[in-house]
Amino acid sequence: MIDELSFEGNIARAGKYGTGVVKRVQEWLTLHGFGLTIDDDFGPITGHQVESFQKLHAIPSTGVVNLPTWTRLVAPLTAALRPGPQGATLGATLALVAQQHYTEHPREVGGNNRGPWVRYYMRGADGTKQNWCAGCDTTLLAQASAPLLPPIGYHVNCDALADEARHASRLVLGSLGYAGVKEALGEGGLFLVRDRDGSYSHTGVITALHPDAFHTLEGNFGSGLGRMATYARSYQSCEFVRVNG
Questions:
Q1: For 179-228, how does the pLDDT look when each residue is reduced to its tens digit (9 = 90+)?
Q2: Final residue before a domain boundary, out of 39, 73, 107
């Protein structure tokens, strides 16, 4: 598994690097607004964009990705991984951790279900088949639970997430409506979108419960290049995962 934050040494034009080393630099440059073709080749355009990024952040403009440059490139992920607050319920902490990630704009780059955010949530995997909503949610839950173990383990599949919640008596039916869901969940939790065939196709973090709808933060949201986004949903179309207690 690639550590998305690790610095493996200076990266410069004409150097010889393993697969994916230069690609990570190009992905982060693009995420910061210094767009270029992500081809894993450190050519003159990549060097120019590194220099432009360095100038913006008052780093000596050498075109070499050194430790200060790398640290600034990956700063959004570093910020998202700050420990959650202490003293709140796990559901409330989960919502705050999700907001912490949302503030840093997790999103795909370089193609469908690709990029450093996806690989972080999917434990090193990315690619067209790596739908990352469940991986995102269970990663956030582990971060919110630390140093304790989370009540639901890591999953990359919504059906598997629902199965564990059901077996742990943590699955709550949306048909209970606002009052029933709020009583069962307490503060915060996860939701699952249930399809007509009984399978589950999407999941996200609950940020607030209201009588007419609940509000969310959801990874792998939207058509095209997915991102983390806020949304409002109906109780009837979803089931819920209790994380408190």
A1: 999 999 999 999 999 999 999 999 999 999 999 999 999 999 998 899 99
A2: 73
